[in-house]
UniProtKB/TrEMBL annotation, chain A:
It holds the Pfam family Sld5. This is DNA replication complex GINS protein PSF2. One of its GO terms (biological process) is DNA replication. Residues 97-195 form the GINS subunit domain. It comes from the Eukaryota.
TrEMBL record, chain B:
InterPro entries: GINS_A (IPR021151), GINS_bundle-like_dom_sf (IPR036224), GINS_Psf3 (IPR010492), GINS_Psf3_sf (IPR038437), PSF3_N (IPR055221). Keywords: DNA replication, Nucleus. Belongs to the GINS3/PSF3 family. The GINS complex plays an essential role in the initiation of DNA replication. It comes from Lachancea nothofagi CBS 11611. It is found in: Nucleus. Its main location: nucleus. This is DNA replication complex GINS protein PSF3. Transmembrane segments: none annotated. Residues 4-56 form the DNA replication complex GINS protein PSF3 N-terminal domain. GO terms for biological process: mitotic DNA replication initiation. Residues 79-182 form the GINS subunit domain. Component of the GINS complex which is a heterotetramer of SLD5, PSF1, PSF2 and PSF3. GO terms for cellular component: GINS complex.
């Protein structure tokens, strides 16, 4: 088919990254694009402006150095690459906060902690592209994120023992984790449904 | 399970033992004697796609009081014998499903549909859950350095039936892509 088999029923991790890169994030710009009020507002200076279709270009045309602004993640990464901004890490990406999540995960064995849906992708992207902007040392943060991931993987393994043909509740599981599970869970649950469906006719007759 | 599904076609080609309820002229080639008749109570192994239809459609409904018998009667295959069922109940993970039948699940579901077999469904449910845990364990334990060389398959991997192989391949690919993405940068 026109779509390769791997992508027919799921996303690749790169596509998940693409989705996450559309989210807003805070940055410290290192340059100013706001045109001065004193001059002609008609913008005759010939300065190039941002004209975007998929993201809001208003904050980008009003950048003031060292004043936080929210822009789309992919723009932030582009600017960061050129050294034109530093990215403000989200609040949960701190050692203390991550430790709190880990404690919660360990205490509540039956549920997942309330990490944002994109935590794994954001953490990976920031570790590799904006490591110098994080408040805590990257290697420690990496360790904590890995801890969280492994604890959650263990819980997922426990949860898979209760697969059934009708439903599955996965509160607070992140998109990337769901995406990794998808082929397996769908395969098993579809087969279970098929197995149960083979006698469904009789039940209807009984009623 | 669709019309063009290759695995479904292959599963349907599996032979099941059947007993004929009628004398039928000309059908001797099913037994191997071309040009002869087939006798009542003859035991023949028929592919499921044929047996399934012949076990439903019957002779003249006008004859006899208790309704017409179908052309053939399907007999329980080895694949679903009590011996196999007990083996599943005792330990699905150690069972060599592939050597019992490489399309075990597909055929068992078809059988359960034909006979409304509640017990079989329960056993299948249990077997599927237990074995899928093991498949998930194998699929998610990946070492990227070893991927290039042919990995040595554990004994469990050789016991998978066709559905389980597909499940394993898909979840393995998913875990592999995920790991590659995390390592890449």
């Amino acid at each position: 088919m026109s779509l390769p088999w791997k992508l027919q029923e799921t996303f690749s991790p790169e596509e998940i990254q693409f989705i996450v890169e559309n989210e807003p994030i805070k940055i410290f710009p290192r340059f100013t694009t706001r045109s001065k009020v004193r001059g002609n507002r008609g913008n005759k200076t010939g300065q190039t402006r941002w004209k975007l279709l998929t993201a809001s270009d208003e904050p980008l045309n009003n950048l003031v150095a060292i004043q936080t602004t929210e822009v789309a993640f992919w723009i932030a990464l582009l600017l960061k690459q050129q050294g034109k901004c530093s990215i403000v890490a989200p609040g949960w990406l701190r050692l203390t906060q991550l430790q709190r999540f880990i404690d919660y995960e360990l205490k509540n064995t039956e549920r997942f902690s309330e990490l944002p849906w994109n935590w794994l992708v954001v953490a990976q992207l920031l570790f590799s592209k904006a490591a110098d902007d994080l408040q805590d040392p990257v290697h420690l943060l990496r360790g904590k994120v890995q801890d969280l991931r492994e604890i959650r993987l263990g819980k997922i393994g426990q949860g898979l023992k209760h697969l059934n043909e009708s439903h599955l509740q996965l509160d607070n599981l992140s998109l990337l984790e769901i995406n990794e599970l998808r082929p397996f869970v769908l395969g098993v649950m579809n087969k279970l449904k098929q197995v149960h469906g083979s006698i469904a006719d009789e039940q209807e007759e009984e009623q | 399970m669709s019309y063009y599904d290759i695995d479904d076609i292959l599963a349907d080609a599996n032979k099941f033992p059947c007993r004929f309820n009628y004398d039928i002229p000309g059908l001797g080639y099913l037994e191997g004697n071309i040009g002869k008749d087939i006798k009542i109570n003859a035991k023949v192994e028929l592919p499921l796609w044929l047996a399934r239809i012949l076990a439903i459609v019957g002779g003249d409904p006008g004859i006899g009081d208790e309704g017409a018998l179908p052309f053939v009667e399907l007999m329980a295959p080895d694949m679903l014998s009590p011996k196999v069922m007990n083996a599943i109940k005792s330990g699905p993970v150690t069972l060599d499903v592939h050597s019992i039948n490489s399309h075990f699940y597909a055929l068992a579901v078809k059988w359960a549909t034909l006979f409304n077999d509640r017990d079989l469904v329960q056993i299948l449910n249990y077997m599927l859950l237990e074995r899928s845990q093991e498949i998930n364990n194998f699929a998610s334990s990946i070492q990227l350095e070893k991927l290039g060389r042919g990995r040595d398959m554990g004994p469990f991997m050789l016991t998978l039936d066709e559905f389980e192989k597909k499940l394993y391949r898909e979840s393995h690919e998913s875990c592999k892509d995920m790991k590659k993405w995390i390592v890449q940068k």
